[in-house]
Amino acid sequence: MNRRVYFMITATVSLCAFSGALYAAQPAFEGKTIRIVVGFSAGGGFDTYSRAIARHMSKHIPGNPTIIVENMTGAGSIVAANYLYRIAKPDGLTIGNFHGFQVLNQVLGASGIEFDARKFEWLGVPVQDTGACALTRASGITNLEQWRAAKQPVKLGGVGPGDASYGMARVLKEVLGLPVQPIPGYKGTAEIRLAAESGEVAGGCWQWESIKVIWRKALDAGDVNLVLQLVAKPNPELAKVPLAASLAKTEEARLLLQAAVHDPNSITRPYSLPPGTPKDRVQLLQKAFLDTMKDPEFLADAKKAQMDLDPVSGEEVEKTVARFFQLDPALVAKLREILR
Fold first, then answer.
1. Domain limits of the chain?
2. In CATH terms, are 3-128+266-339 and 131-264 the same topology?
3. What is the fold, at CATH topology level, of the domain defined by 131-264?
4. CB burial class (10 A; 0-12, 13-18, 19+) of residue 87?
5. What CATH superfamily is the domain 3-128+266-339?
6. Beta-carbon contacts of residue 13 (< 8 Å; ≥ 6 apart)
7. Can you give the three-state secondary structure of the chain, one letter per residue?
């Protein structure tokens, strides 16, 4: 048998096997409803991305199931992650969307975590995020120089210990020495935005991809300013905004910043399935997720909502998750001291 014939036969067998998997999976999804359980409140960045995905992903799933979004707030999305791990049925009908920062929190031994991130079935991430700090003009802090010179700590809203918004504020204070007073207790970024607009806090630090969507009018009007970005390389849209890394004066500070902020931001918005979900359904939903990221109608929807897209596959998310569990124990101990 020559090589050409061999590869034609192999390709045909593979195509038949995949077609068979599609046919077998269709009854599992036909007439069913898939829930995307979002760990934050409605109106925030996580919710915005999930609702856009829900509007378009069905057409890429055999059987074209209905897809709805449910908000399950609490503990910086730990409630939703625990639900996905411990309660949700592993049947492919429940997709979790919680904060990737919680993977680091598991490594740090944070209280309340009842999941093992290494056992989730990861579908992917729609965008690799840019951490950024947005402060209102009314706060009097419109640039980094003013912030560094502030005589009183700048109040930054956050969800609470274990959440990236609170964690970034703590890193700015404890690692980089900025005058910061983290204010926890908000349910999500939508509430932090409202608190900043009312003068309760000066602003907050979370993902630029979310900030520019839910705070667009204030940014355009100059009522809100991006003062700092927390990312390894500058975001092209924030070329004039200084990097937090420029404030890191020691190698330890740079490593802490990388582990606590830069790496978690690369998987901020992961989508996953419960452990034990049948592999054929996992593979079909992984493919459907990535196909949605290329869907012209979804892309038009995302552009209209000014949602950035830089998707990462489930396989790559799994590799990133594994790296968190390989951090040096001494560094983990220091991170625990800072973030807890």
1. 3-128+266-339, 131-264
2. yes
3. D-Maltodextrin-Binding Protein; domain 2 (3.40.190)
4. exposed
5. Bordetella uptake gene, domain 1 (3.40.190.150)
6. none
7. CCHHHHHHHHHHHHHHHHHHHHHHHHHHHCCCEEEEEECCCCCCHHHHHHHHHHHHHHHHCCCCCEEEEEECCCHHHHHHHHHHHHCCCCCCCEEEECCCHHHHHHHCCCCCCCCCHHHCEEEEECCCCCEEEEEEHHHCCCCHHHHHCCCCCEEEECCCCCCHHHHHHHHHHHCCCCCEEEECCCCCHHHHHHHHHCCCCCEEEEEHHHHHHHCHHHHHHCCEEEEEEECCCCCHHHCCCCEHHHHCCCHHHHHHHHHHHHHHHCCCCCEEECCCCCHHHHHHHHHHHHHHHHCHHHHHHHHHCCCCCCCEEHHHHHHHHHHHCCCCHHHHHHHHHHHC
pTM of full prediction above 0.85: no
Q: How many whole angstroms separate alpha carbon 27 and alpha carbon 294? A: 25
Residue-wise pLDDT for 218-260, tens only, equals 999 999 999 999 998 899 999 999 999 999 999 999 989 989 9
**Tell me: the pLDDT tens digits for 272-306?**
999 999 999 999 999 999 999 999 999 999 999 88
Q: How far apart are CA 180 and CA 262, in angstroms?
A: 19
Output the CA torsion 257→259→261→264 (10° steps): 170
Instruction: Please name the residue that has the structure tokens 């609470």.
Output: 160
